Amino acid sequence: MTDKYQGFVSSPIGKLLVKNLGLPNPTKLDRYKAGDPLVSGTVLVGGRGRLIESLPGLLDVLGIDSASAQAEGEKYKGLVFDATGITTVEQLVELQAFFTPVMRSLKSCARVVVIGTPPALVEGSEEIAQRALEGFTRSLGKEIGKGGTVQLVYVADGYEDSVLSTLGFLLSPKSAYVSGQVVRIGTHAETHGSALADWTQPLAGKVAFVTGASRGIGEEIARVLHRDGAKVVGLDVPQAADELVKVMNELDGDWLTLDITAADAPQRIAHHLKEKHGGVDIVVHNAGVTMDKKLANQTPERFGKVLQINLEAPERITAELLDQKVVNANGRIIGVASIAGIAGNLGQTSYAASKAGVIGFVDSLADRLEDGITINAVAPGFIITQMTAAVPFATREVGQRLNAMAQGGLPVDVAETIAWYASPASTAVNGNVVRVCGQMMLGA
């Protein structure tokens, strides 16, 4: 599916109307293609703190060129500011001192990352100053423009060596539709990310299980995980068997057809993964439904069905896989929440409840998992799919334009975020819920 408005504003008459009427003019976003460098350009590094000395070397490992001082006339593809050394409110002006002179020297689709210390792990003035970074980055994300993104990464003391996978994701086109987010590293698991021999194939030798994999976001998740080296096992309902088999054959994958709400579904899934693949490394709970109605018109059957598919089934399947030790050490459990579960949505009380529950699911397990297993979730906003194409035109346009990028996301944007979570180098990334919504202007 495509954004017809974006095509229109690129036409001669569209450009004229944008200029004279002040209409939204979305930038075509850079997106990653296999074989591309992570960053096409130079990243300027600044600030002071625990990571400032190591950042150039870390970026070099990822093949990213960096500079430590602004050069006259130079254009930058990214900025990284180490704010871990900011311990008082007065020192927050260092943000302005670094960013203001360079904001007009950013290329299109630039990436900005601020690194801080988790406020919960410090006290007094330092806690206040570190918490202030969230307002700064979220506001900058809404003014950077030209397809740029801004993120805040809180790194716990002692986890400075665990930021590689996160920097690689947030500084690259893989994070095209992720902005205004707060990522926490090392705040749950006392384990660090693994070193990777090949950053282009981080999932080589891994088995990934994806529900709802026959089309839409699920299909794209399967494709991206396969691109990164994983053996994909896709699941969908029997009615979607033909589509599922076609996709899995293209990816040299495996498949399983069943209703995830069936009483024996968790046991059947666990048996299949254990017997055919010796276990699983990545579990992506993508399958979901909407049965939208205002609560006054809702029925118990419809309300309950949404909760069963979107929330109860992932909980039951995960419990079975963990109980039977089907999830391998350093494994990944990844849920798909929604912006509706954070901000709510008209006519979606059941859907929003189920997706907020996915966030609760992450919170409930983040501190209980062992052997380097992590749990995280994505929360998509308006993603252009066949399902959203059926949304009435006016509602669809509002959904696509009311974000900092003035456009809808693509299924690949969700998939890339999941692939970042899935990386063996992301072990210290645990208990996070990252929105893939272009940074909605209102509500979240």
From TrEMBL:
The keyword Oxidoreductase applies. Belongs to the short-chain dehydrogenases/reductases (SDR) family. SUPFAM superfamilies: NAD(P)-binding Rossmann-fold domains. Residues 206-381 form the Ketoreductase domain. One of its GO terms (molecular function) is 3-oxoacyl-[acyl-carrier-protein] reductase (NADPH) activity. It is an enzyme of class 1 (oxidoreductase). SMART domains: PKS_KR. InterPro entries: KR_dom (IPR057326), NAD(P)-bd_dom_sf (IPR036291), Sc_DH/Rdtase_CS (IPR020904), SDR_fam (IPR002347). PROSITE patterns: ADH_SHORT (PS00061). Its EC number is 1.1.1.100. This is 3-oxoacyl-[acyl-carrier protein] reductase. Keywords: Oxidoreductase. It comes from the Bacteria.
